[in-house]
């Protein structure tokens, strides 16, 4: 089997340019989903730790639901089901169709909701890792709840949560491949198109694996560096 490496070039006959654009879309949709998951995870964590009983039950129900339902089903629900809901609302308001749901938005929201269920566990574990004596000492000195949260809880919890957040980012990157079912031209979608067009599935799917590996490896270096910087003060204190 001969391999034409020019197929990965950036010329008129190469797929390099469109694959690079698709990889950019993958990183962008993953970043939006991960950030949404971080926001939802922090809210769910607060509901579980400091919320009323109904808030704790609501958070636990949310986490159980999105941890138990397959990711692909959630994406289908938000994309295809979302189109049906938008069409129903538009027709009820007397608006002219056709009505559609953006694949990028639907995919980012679906993966973000799933990521939020997992990131809540990361944040909750990070909170319980804070020494109780630290919080008690801050309360004795007269810190209010807002100041305690901003100056004590957030800095210490984030240091502990960084590895888990990095793992969640890696998961979101891989889950973003499922967004291809919405028609969004991200890495997996473009790889499939190139494979079908050239009748070289092994070559292009291998190239896709390399693209994802490059993204996750670079991400791992970034999170390791951020974690090292965040823990620098604690390392000096131990010495």
UniProtKB/TrEMBL annotation:
<dbReference type="GO" id="GO:0006865">
    <property type="term" value="P:amino acid transport"/>
</dbReference>
<keyword id="KW-0472">Membrane</keyword>
<keyword id="KW-0812">Transmembrane</keyword>
<protein>
    <submittedName>
        <fullName>ABC transporter permease</fullName>
    </submittedName>
</protein>
<keyword id="KW-1003">Cell membrane</keyword>
<dbReference type="InterPro" id="IPR000515">
    <property type="entry name" value="MetI-like"/>
</dbReference>
<dbReference type="GO" id="GO:0022857">
    <property type="term" value="F:transmembrane transporter activity"/>
</dbReference>
<dbReference type="InterPro" id="IPR051613">
    <property type="entry name" value="ABC_transp_permease_HisMQ"/>
</dbReference>
<keyword id="KW-1133">Transmembrane helix</keyword>
<dbReference type="GO" id="GO:0043190">
    <property type="term" value="C:ATP-binding cassette (ABC) transporter complex"/>
</dbReference>
<dbReference type="InterPro" id="IPR010065">
    <property type="entry name" value="AA_ABC_transptr_permease_3TM"/>
</dbReference>
<feature type="domain" description="ABC transmembrane type-1">
    <location>
        <begin position="23"/>
        <end position="223"/>
    </location>
</feature>
<feature type="transmembrane region" description="Helical">
    <location>
        <begin position="59"/>
        <end position="79"/>
    </location>
</feature>
<dbReference type="Pfam" id="PF00528">
    <property type="entry name" value="BPD_transp_1"/>
</dbReference>
<keyword id="KW-0997">Cell inner membrane</keyword>
<keyword id="KW-0813">Transport</keyword>
<comment type="similarity">
    <text>Belongs to the binding-protein-dependent transport system permease family. HisMQ subfamily.</text>
</comment>
<keyword id="KW-0029">Amino-acid transport</keyword>
<dbReference type="InterPro" id="IPR035906">
    <property type="entry name" value="MetI-like_sf"/>
</dbReference>
<feature type="transmembrane region" description="Helical">
    <location>
        <begin position="202"/>
        <end position="226"/>
    </location>
</feature>
<feature type="transmembrane region" description="Helical">
    <location>
        <begin position="22"/>
        <end position="47"/>
    </location>
</feature>
């Amino acid at each position: 089997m001969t391999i034409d490496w020019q197929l990965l070039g950036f010329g008129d006959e190469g797929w390099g340019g469109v694959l690079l654009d698709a990889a950019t879309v993958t990183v962008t949709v993953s970043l939006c989903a991960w950030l949404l998951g971080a926001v939802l995870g922090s809210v769910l964590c607060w509901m579980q730790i400091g919320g009323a009983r109904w808030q704790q039950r609501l958070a636990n129900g949310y986490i159980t639901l999105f941890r138990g339902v397959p990711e692909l089903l959630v994406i289908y629900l938000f994309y295809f089901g979302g189109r049906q809901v938008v069409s129903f609302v538009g027709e009820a308001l007397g608006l002219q169709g056709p009505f559609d749901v953006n694949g990028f938005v639907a995919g980012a929201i679906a993966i973000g909701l799933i990521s939020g269920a997992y990131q809540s566990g990361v944040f909750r574990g990070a909170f319980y890792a804070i020494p109780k004596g630290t919080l008690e000492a801050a309360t004795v000195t007269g810190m209010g709840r807002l100041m305690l949260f901003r100056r004590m809880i957030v800095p210490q919890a984030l240091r502990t949560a960084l590895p888990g957040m990095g793992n969640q980012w890696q998961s979101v990157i891989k889950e973003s491949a499922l967004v291809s079912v919405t028609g969004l031209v991200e890495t997996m979608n473009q790889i499939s198109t190139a494979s079908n067009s050239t009748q070289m599935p092994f070559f292009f799917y291998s190239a896709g694996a390399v693209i994802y590996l490059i993204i996750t490896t670079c991400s791992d270096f970034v999170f390791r560096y951020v974690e090292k910087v965040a823990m620098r003060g604690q390392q000096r204190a131990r010495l």
